[in-house]
Amino acid sequence: MSYYLGIDSSTQGIKAVVIDPVAGVIVGGAGVNYTADLPQYNCSDGVLPDPDPLVKHADPLMWLAALDLLLERLGDSGVDMGRIAAVGGDGQQHGSVYLNDGFGAALGRLDPALTLAEQLKPGLARRTSPIWMDSSTSEECRDLNERFGTRMQADTGSPAVERFTGPQIRRFAKLDPQGYAATSRIHLVSSFLCSVLIGHDAPLDSGDGAGMNLLNLRTMTWDAEIAGYTAPGLTAKLPQVAAGVAGGLNPYFAKYGLRAGIPVAVWTGDNPASLIGTGAWCAGVAVVSLGTSDTFFAAMGDFRTDPQGCGHVFGNPAGGFMSLACFKNGSLARDRVRQEAGVDWAFFDTGAFEATPPGNGGRLALPWYVPEITPPVLKPRVRANFDFAAAAPAVRVRAAVEGQILAMRCHTAWIGDFKVIRVTGGASGSAGIRQTLADVFNAKVESVAVRDSAALGGAMLAAHLDGVALATMADRFAPVTAVCEPRSSNAALYDELLPVIGELETQDP
Ligand code: XUL
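^ thats the input. predicted complex w/ D-xylulose below
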């Protein structure tokens, strides 16, 4: 039977997953890590060094080199590439690629004897790409929010926020008007790589397009007024918004054993792809992904926005909308607290709570080591309601974990009251963290056995193009492997602690 390939171009690397939906098995996969495998691009953890801590850019040529290397590795791994019948994919959200007139022509004549990076380099109108970790556009956000007021959030799903593409484009047009004038097309990471796969300009989907502060989610078209104010002539530089098939696979990729012309699905953002890959595209189940950053997302039946202005609304690739709240100080911050405290997770996971019972005696911390997204904080530091540095290691770790999860509850209440939360990502392997999540949200926490939910979502969307039902695939590829029930006494304890989060967040910066 046919195989389907999903590709996830994420912050620190790129991954592929190949599925056989009829047999219900993952038949292969491959990965490339930018730091380890492509050090020549100087993007440690996927980010170019910059003296300004607010500036976070990457080299788009690295993403191309990674795509070549990924497909080579996938072919070498023994997967029967000729059986792949369609390709889907996603990219880290918000990142943008600036292309000149030569890009389209170069795509149309890709030579398999050469690499993507060398052939497409002349098509770049800007050598670097701002990514979602960038927080350098506060001034532009201020301009946009002042100009459009509440309409910005009411129509695009989010107020203007630093990492979103519109403010990034406005800054580029202001700082480098010539570079902006030489730009004829601006792609997101997703639509950039999808364009490369199909050999011509690809559309972007409403899941990723909504992360730009430019797409009117009520009409699903570019908001001409907002785009016009963001930067001159911007609408003409944006791709179309569409769903379904983007085009046929460029013959260039036959060198990896793939069949030229197989359908390539319109790519989406990593979070919308994960919504599919975790089987949560129908309203009622929320997903918490505990990765580099922590994210909370859920399908939404209706279009509603966050009254606090921190969360976002994106298109749901399965139809309708999804909500998302992103906490930048996620696993990296959690692990830093743990490392600096010199302990491992065992004390937290085995239930040996002597030193620190749930609730931690009311001691809470928000471990903000980098500028935070939810709530927006540009000057990071650890906020705590006790002497954090002097406290016992176990107390510090519990304060940080509980603080993060309570903050997540505070900032996602607008999405709904969920009785089931699905958890994925590296830190979801911790039994202690899962139990804390269940108790804080007073919800059943289900672990789903999906390692690469975004790449899997891309593969499922590719198979869906061929008529395979998403529900059938979710049962097979995202089974629930463990369930953690909330403990009511702890839930009541956490309810009482909720107001402390507001106090920490408004502490002096
Ligand atoms: C979502 C966000 C991140 C990126 C990278 O708004 O900024 O989750 O998509 O994963």
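The mean pLDDT is 95.
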